[in-house]
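Re: that chain you flagged

S.,

Sorry for the slow reply, it's been a week of failed gels. I finally had a moment to sit down with the sequence you sent. For the record, here it is as I used it:
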Amino acid sequence: MNYICLLMVLSLGFSQEQKKVNFDPDKLKDPEPRWPKVISPFSLNSKEVKPAGNPDSTQIIVEGFRVQVLATSTRGNADRLRDELTNEYGEDIYIVFEAPNYKVRIGNFIDRRQAEKLRIELINKGYPSSWIIRTRIEPNILR
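Prediction finished late last night. Pasting the structure tokens below so you have them in one place:
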């Protein structure tokens, strides 16, 4: 029994050896983040604002409205509806995932009345669950 206790004490003593780690945090360099430029849409009427270089490098996001047509738990249903709506309405159709649902939304409206017109049109075309949602949008000012 003493032999086993002695063996355990010695094994614990030898297992406590410290390992050297070769890491110098001063040599670690993180890449610089590439933040998007944010421009107020109200200043776009000014002659001072000019797109810099690539026109796709500037993204304008404001509070606005979209019409939500469907909320479903399957991505396939959302994709099919997006394809149908793309054929009828064009390119401003979005699929947003908010767990556990995929939400199909259409439009980029600053004015709620424009969104209401589209909602009524969608209801008349067979999408009775369409409703207006307030969200951040990309207005069609520069397009």
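What I noticed first: The mean pLDDT is 81.

Talk soon,
D.
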